[in-house]
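Case study.
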Amino acid sequence: MSTPLPLDGIKVIDFTHVQAGPACTQLLAWYGADVLKVERPGSGDVTRSQLRDDPDADALYFTMLNSNKRSLTLNTKDPAGKEVLEKLIRQSDVLVENFAPGALDRMGFTWERIQELNPKMILASVSGFSEGHHYEDLKVYENVAQCAGGAASTTGFWDGPPTVSAAALGDSNTGMHLAIGILTALRGRDKTGKGQKVACAMQDAVLNLCRVKLRDQQRLDKIGYLEEYPQYPHGEFSDVVPRGGNAGGGGQPGWVLKCKSWETDPNAYIYFTIQGHAWQPICRALNKPEWIDDPAYNTAEARQDKIMEIFAFIEEWLKDKTKYEAVDILRKFDIPCAPVASMKELAEDKSLRESGSIVEVPHKQRGTYLTVGSPIKFSGFKPVITGSPLLGEHSDEVLAELGYNVEQIAAMHESNTI
Ligand code: CAO
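After joint prediction, the assembly is written out as follows.
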């Protein structure tokens, strides 16, 4: 018998779409929850057909966010569909949704109604802004949230516009926050026997990751400058946290530095960190022993006004080394650094394949596809990633589990309820 997974037995109605909600429920599915994706008949989650690379297969946008789930098509605005959803709510532990504000209420599934159906139910929602916020009615996508949550104003270079990150700080990050909320509510339910509503706003999830910038705003308000930003000491500060380019942002100055072939390879760079107590090894690695005891260089304060000159010197040292050669030298000196990895390099990285952080999984239309595996590793089990379901692949199976007979299921197909 195989070892039970930690979330075995937890039933999740996955009424989510696009990225924020699906990322959350996928995580729960990896760890054992029975996640049932409920989708609109005919079209399903919009990501099934967005950015398709193969006209006859679900898009990678969908497959990479919906692994380990089952799919039920259901028109939840139709009375028969509502009845099915009610039955599911009675039998499930968690309902996750990320529709536009009010959509679930308009469908007739208010929090009060859900509690009537199942007082143990946990209703988990993603929204753009939190309840009561002056923008609470807005529909929100990834970059909107990055702008609203403080990431865009603090990302990029000081002489360029606010910049969004490629990392899904608004979408997947909110999903990860929501998953923590769901697990917390499940633990709470173990103690009280009651479910509860769990909500995570994308703006708040972005802001939670931008907390050091809120720290910086308060420091700026008080002393008027931020010594770890490239603007210090030669540039100007206004009254808002500036964009700091590739600065380290903490107590350890760092920068993205050019390596051999940067002229032709857009990712021939490393990130180099000048960790305060690693100054001696850095000097030895760079063959610059005279800097070790030079008072103009041997403290972080002394280095600050010439930090860009130091980085320029390191770039000179790097110019005949590939990013991999450079890191292989620097790692021996215990210097925190890494090559700037392209997506192609990550996709082919043997270590990531071995650890299960990138996995190739089977799919009925695609043969196989590459996806991201669990970034969390456990000593008691290794999450097994399976392919995403086809649209409505499990509709008949789920309805039979709910007690519908073959004729009733056929009638629901006929009327496009499923
Ligand atoms: N059966 C019947 N109706 C269904 C259904 C189903 N299975 N699934 C969804 N619907 C209906 C909804 O009830 C809604 O109907 P009403 O507008 O009549 O109430 C309708 O489909 C559209 O839902 P929506 O407004 O959520 O979808 P949209 O494409 O217009 O907006 C999005 C998408 C993401 C902007 C919006 O859902 C949103 O702001 N969500 C909250 C924030 C969020 O999660 N954003 C992240 C998305 S990831 O980038």
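Observations recorded in class. The CA atoms of residues 254 and 273 lie 4 Å apart. The longest strand covers residues 34-39. We will return to this complex in the next lecture.
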